[in-house]
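Recall that a protein's primary structure is simply its ordered list of amino acids. Everything else, from secondary elements to tertiary packing, is in principle encoded there. The following example makes that idea concrete.
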Amino acid sequence: MDQLTLSRINQLIRREVVPATGCTEPTCVALAVAYAVALLPQKVTDIEVWLSANMLKNAMGVGIPGTGQIGIPIAIALGAVLKAPERQLELLDHFTQEELNQANQMVEQGLMHTHLKDTPDLDKLYVEVIARDNAGHKARSVIERTHISLKELQLDGEDRLPKQEQGTFVGCSETIQQVTSINEEDIPLTFSLVYEYATQAPLEDIDFIHEAAQQNKRVGEYALKGNFGHGVGKLIQGDMGQKFFGSSPLAHMLSYTSGACDARMDGAPVTVMSNSGSGNQGITATLPVLTFAESQGCDRERTTRALMMSGLLVVYIKQLLGRLSCLCGMVVSGIGSSAAIVYLMGGTKEQSSYAIKNMIGNVTGMICDGAKPSCSLKASTGICSGLIAAMMAMQNNYVKVVEGIVEDDIDDCIRTLAEIGRDGMLETDRKVLEVMTNKKK
């Protein structure tokens, strides 16, 4: 692999594996609000938020860190109170009780109004904020395509979009680190590129992914000491889990990974290393791999390379699939971890591709019905399926081209998965949102 390719992939993975506090969809909404409100000279009096269907779906039912509340209103209010867009996806990492009280007052006063933005060709990740103050000023912000891609910023119709200078945004109250989205200049990945980079890149270039996995494990450990969400991770470690799962590698994979999802989706004040804009994807691309490696006594280098394989496969699939879709992210991250587990088992590149085919032939079609505590259940489904897929692959047993949607070429297979999730499940996506927004509470 030439030096330019190494450098481009290194930049890509480092941009996609970043810290995030809380579910990234409501945090993205809070970030867009913070951008707009920070421009207003006077006290904000009204905030309109327009969301794409997928953003609305993913933001409406998840816990907001440190608040004990769920959903969009408190996220909007915190964004308006904190007014710190330079914190990016860690915007909700910390705030005082006084700031939370101010946000709660805004919610009680009904200062924010949320709407569905339903226009043709709208990106699935879209947030538009219009904020007004008591002096009649109006600020507008738009985040689109990725959770931190600020596309428009205006005050009273005048462009205030920060200028890019040497990797930073300038022109705001503080310098804002610029983390750009996947774009046309990014290197288009393939399975071979992913595998070669993960197994051959200089260890010092990829060691950060091991640190990212350790951060996510700390969240899993934190979750197992408390009571969060549906407690799936804690259940596996409890008496009933020990009775039916024992202390197997699978049990450890399930407990730490599902536990971290339990805590994050319940609004625990934790920061995880995300992948491609999703904290749950970051968790489920790392913790099954890390815990399996630990159970097998793998050394740091092999573990790190496996983690990179898993994480970069997620980035590859998301390049084709898009940030948000009706396809559950646990399918995507489960594919990554399954291929990486084959590598940890001593399998070949071809056997890792078999694991991917086994996963695509199994869990494709699992729907995303928003971010919420029960995401930990879907994480457990991806983990179990991933381990079975890897075990089959190690015996050279895989879903063949004559079976269902699986293609012979591995990259064609991944493209088919992406096309089904991106295009084929559009009507399912609309129906899911309809059910979520119209059911009797």
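The CA atoms of residues 194 and 312 lie 6 Å apart. DSSP finds 18 helices and 13 strands in the chain.
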